[in-house]
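Task card 7
Instruction: Convert sequence to structure tokens.
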Amino acid sequence: MKATYKRCQFQTWSRQTDMVRACCLSAILVALASIWSSDFAQSKDLEDDDASTSTKSTLPNIYLDLRTNYAAVPANALSVGFGSPSLSSMVGTLSPSSSQGVAIDVPLTVDIGDRLSVYGGFSASASQGGASDWSTLAVSSWNAGFQVDVHQQNGGTIPTITLQSTLTRSVPDSPLATTSLNAIVEVGYALNSDETRGFLAGIQHTRIAVDSPLATVKPASIGYVGAYYQWENNWKITGRVGIQSFGGAQLLNLTPIPSFTQPIVRLDLDRLDDNDNRLFGLTAQIVWVPRPSYQLTIRTPLYAFRN
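Output:
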């Protein structure tokens, strides 16, 4: 996490701990509310199905794809992994002691049909390392991107091909302001016509450019395979395992971060509606860097409009 955040001196350690607990509790409460409201909405839709069929709206899904993250990273390491990282969210790990952090991602997302989604928003984060206090929660970066199904299987033999690209820019409040580009190509092959079970394979490539000529971060790539299964009650589980290769980094006068090639594991549990809109998500990720780095993400989309 970002090492250059301005620190705020709190009176006691317990006040900082309360901040993190409150953040996590808020995310859980929103998640429970999201699940309850979605179930209520689905039952109401079933009651009014005949009346609403002729007036079904063609407006796109519009929502805040709110994500609350917690990460624990070993000392002297950069944790890249799945997602769209920027150096602003990783610099805090470059210390003799392990570190931890919380982050909230708030991208406004628009699903244009069932093939294309566009999004853009900001991230706010706070970090803590060693015996130091937590930094204040502050905006650390903004991002914009898209996800598109280049081809959809739709019961055929050619698998679905999905492309996702995200541009992330850190807030330039330090010499280590960065711009990162994250691209993912994923192939999904469904084993049945309902596409409730199948296999995945993909490649992710991340490049990070640092504004300062005194720092360099080489690209990171992940190759992975996985599978998914969706129950009749619309809970879905997805697992991915792969190999991550990171080229290493040199940041100012800090000890160089060596390159590595190590395994990575990710597990997703999602609650969907009948139209495969996500209502709630939980992601657990382990990245060896080369020692294990852990990340937990709670997704609680807040819909302004949902088909």
